Structures are given as structure tokens and as C-alpha cells.
Amino acid sequence: KLGMAVKKDDNFGEWYSEVVVNSEMIEYYDISGCYILRPQAISIWETLQAFFDPEIKKMGIKNAYFPLFVTENVLQKEKDHIEGFAPEVAWVTKSGKSELEVPIAIRPTSETVMYPYFAKWIRGHRDLPLKLNQWCNVVRWEFSNPTPFIRSREFLWQEGHTAFAIKEEADQEVLEILELYRRVYEEYLAIPVIKGKKSELEKFAGGLYTTSVEAFIPHTGRGIQGATSHCLGQNFAKMFQINFEDDKGGKGMVWQNSWAYSTRTIGVMVMVHGDDKGLVLPPKVASAQVVVIPVPYKDADTTAIKAACESTANDLNAAGMRADLDTRENYSPGWKYSHWEMKGIPLRIEIGPRDLEKSQVRIVRRDNGAKIDVPMGELVEKVQEILTSIQENLFNTAKEKRDACIEVVHTWDEFMTALNNKKLILAPWCDEEIVDQVMSSN
Ligand SMILES: O=C1CCCN[C@@H]1CCCn1cnc2cc(F)c(F)cc2c1=O
Ligand SMILES: [Mg+2]
Q1: Is 259 in the pocket of ligand 1 (CB under 6 A)?
Q2: Is the peptide bond before 129 cis (omega within 30 degrees of 0)?
Q3: How far apart are the C-alpha atoms of 281 and 311, rounded to whole Å?
Q4: Side-chain half-sphere of 119: how many Cα atoms within 13 Å?
Q5: Does ligand 1 lie within 6 Å of residue 89's CB atom?
Q6: Is 80 exceeded by the pLDDT of residue 435?
Q7: pLDDT by residue (tens digit) across 218-238?
Q8: DSSP 80-133
Q9: How far is CA 38 from CA 1, 20, 23, 44, in A?
């Protein structure tokens, strides 16, 4: 099947579902809200991990792995704010034919799994700071419209959980992690994000304050949380008795942070950069950055063309780029152009008889469709330049589109008009409770 049935401007939801499937990133599964992540999706996830994991290790954070399961009574320890989440918790109640005495929850997040052991491991100030992270899946039995990558019942994420002796150290780490999340989006996924602190009502109820990086989808006019970094204060230390003997022999409670980004990052990338030909991959996260395609003619020297294609791909791979070769006989060049455009490959190289004569190649950019003829001798540095230019162009284009949606408002009417016009709104923030007009008038 070639080409997209739905246009991005006509039906965004259907367009999105089609792109993630046609680009071979997602396969739908027979349980609602669950999706198969195919190699192109996992390749992006691994590229982001290959950036983020070493960065947190430089900050002294170590990876651990905690169990998937948590008992009911431990999960209930967060009772004050968990009741809002209770419907999302998935439970194991049977093994084989026999009921379990006590139902066991599948982790929706790992505070209650980890923090009893933080309490056990942290005794004195020399045990601090304790900084752990885990790369894992979590399950939240979401009910509102499931969307691949964006809202699924199981997803992959990293969750960092850290404990400090003093608040200042926690505050500093919250922002260091938030900057890493900005880099994941802006330097790898070519997506502009806005850093900020959530309001008291928006923040994670179990924490002290929440920061996040927010992306914006111009087509829907909606913001979307890209990643989040919370300071938990001493709330969980109180709940789980995570105390330590400070260097003056007194007892203190630890200050904690928790922070996460998930496979939602990939969905935001599809939404921001995708077009009516399908996926558009930023070169930095594309498993294949280039695809080389022979353009044979009936009487041309197909062997020579194929050889030129192979050596072109080899030269690019030898120079550290990721080049694929599509020499399949049973597909036409035209079919291949559409296929690789659908898969979002940033750059395609066509080599036909005319190119061979002139010992040049034809380069076609996925982001803006530009066609560039390049002498074979200059190929490697030219392709590197163009890939860099595609990465920058995707970011700059997304930033211009987002900034064009920003509207400054000063009244509620202006606010509602802007919201209905798919704007990203910059408004004064008084942060006062709105007392219900009816209540206050009678
Ligand atoms: O957002 C993060 C970063 C990584 C560690 N966790 C924090 C807070 C997660 C907030 N949250 C989010 N969703 C939840 C869903 C549930 F079913 C549930 F039982 C609990 C939660 C829940 O606590
Ligand atoms: Mg939720």
C-alpha cells in the first residue's frame, strides 16, 4: 500500500495512527491500549537512551532494577494521593487456577516499590546521596483514548529516584535533569520545548513541586508534557520513615526527587515532524539516515549502477553515517521512493546511468524535497553537511511554527478565543483560587 489515505490537516488522529503503522514503527495488538514497538521505534528509544544513560551516570546515578509487582498494603501507603490513580492500577489476582491470597499490583510507578528499601539502606549521612534509576516498563490501565506512544496501558520509561541530606542538592538535581530532558527533545528529536514549574493543582500531588518540559502540537493546538522532574520534598521520607543520622548526631529526613521520560517522546516526534508522505525522522535518531537506490534503465549497465550504489553506501557507513541500500529487483524506483519517504528516511540517493556518466549522485531531502546533484568525490562531506542541515531545519521549522502559535492575552475572553484558535497562550498568572461565582454571590 503506498501513500497516506488521510491528510494531517484533515483528520489528525487518523493520520497519526496511519503514520505510526505505515512507517513500521507500531503494530496494533489485540489488547486495547497495548502496542507492538517494531525495530524503528526501538532504535529511536535506544538512541535516546545512549545519550541519557551516560549523562546520568556522570551525575553519580546508578541503574538498578526493582520488581514489577507491589503488594496492596505497600501501594496503599501513598493512600492520600493514590486514590485518584486507583482505577489505573492493574492487579494480579490468580496464578493458574488458584486465587492469590493477597492481590498483587503491577507497578504504575515505583515509589512504593523502592522507598521501603531506601529506608532500610539509608541510616547515616554517609549513605547519602542515594541516586538510583531504572529502565523499565510500567502499566497504567488508562481509559481515555489510547494512542500509540502517547497514552498506552504499558510503556517504557526511565524513572530516577534520588535522596539527599539537604534540599539545595535536591533542587539543583531537579533542574540538571530537566536540562537533560530539554536536550533529548531539542538536540535529538529536533522538537522545541518550554521548561517550567507546574501550578499547585497541576503538580504531582505526592511531591513538593513539579517541573516539566512541555511540547506543542500546532495541528491540534494542544500542549503535551514531554518529561517531568519532581522535587518530592520530605513527603515520602515521612511516609516511609527514610531518616538519617546527620553529622551532628541529630535525626534528619531525606529530601527526594523523582524524574522520568518515556516512549511518549517518540509519539511527539511523529506528531511534530510527520507530513502527508508519512514519517519524517530527524537524522540524529534515524536508524538509517540515507537509503541508496539504483535507477536502472532497460539498456543501461545495471551491474555498474549497482556497484556504484554499493560503494556509495559503503563509503557513507565507513564515514560513520548509517546508510541503507535498496537493490531489490522486484520493486520500481518510484515504489521505493514512496516506501522510504513513508519510513521517514532523511535522505535518499539515486544513481542512474546519467549520474554514472557524470560520476555524480542525485540526493533528495525528505524534509523539504530538495534535489541536489553531488560529484561522487565530494559525497561523504556533502551528505554529512546535508544531514546536519536537515536536523537544524527540522528544529527551526518546528520552533517557527510553535512560536507563530504563541498569543499574549490579558482577559478571559481573549484567553478562550485563543484557546479555541489552537494557540499557545502567554497570560498573566495570579495563582489565586477562583471562588465559584454562585457561592460568593448569594
Ligand atoms: O512522574 C514521576 C516520575 C517518575 C516516578 N514517579 C513520578 C510520579 C508519578 C505520578 N503517578 C502517575 N500515575 C500513577 C498511576 C497510578 F495508577 C498510580 F497508582 C500512581 C501514579 C503516580 O504516582
Ligand atoms: Mg496519568
Answers
A1: yes
A2: yes
A3: 24
A4: 14
A5: yes
A6: no
A7: 999 999 999 999 999 999 999
A8: HHHTTTGGG--EEEEETTEEEEEEEEEPSSSHHHHHHHHHHH--BGGG--EEEE
A9: 18, 10, 10, 10
Q: To test ligand 1's pocket by mutation, which of 72, 109, 113 has the most ligand atoms within 8 angstroms of CB?
A: 109
Calculate how far, in angstroms, residue 203's C-alpha sits from the geometric centre of ligand 2.
12
Max CA distance (Å), the chain: 90
Question: pLDDT at position 1, please?
Answer: 56
Per the listing, cell 522535587 goes with: 231
Helices (H) then strands (E): counts for the chain: 14, 21
Q: Half-sphere exposure of 432 toward its Cβ, with a 13 Å CA cutoff?
A: 5
Ligand 1 within 6 A of 159 CB?
Answer: yes
109 touches ligand 1 (CB under 6 Å): yes
Could you tell me the pTM of the whole model?
0.96
Give 83's contacts (C-beta < 8 A, 6+ positions apart). Answer: none
User: What is the atom index within ligand 1 of the atom nearest the CA of 140?
Assistant: 17
Asked if residues 6 and 18 have their Cβ atoms less than 8 Å apart, the reply is yes
Residue nearest to atom 9 of ligand 1 (CA): 109
CA–centroid distance, 135 to ligand 2, in Å, is: 19
CA 375 – CA 329 distance, rounded (Å): 26
pLDDT tens figures, 285-320 = 999 999 999 999 887 889 999 999 999 999 999 999
Environment class of 38 (CB within 10 Å of its CB; exposed 0-12, middle 13-18, buried 19+): middle
pLDDT for the residue 287 = 98
- The Cα–Cα gap between 242 and 117 comes to 9
Whole-angstrom Cα distance, residue 287 to residue 43?
6
Which atom of ligand 1 sits closest to the CA of residue 81? 23
Residues 147-160, mean pLDDT to the nearest whole number? 98
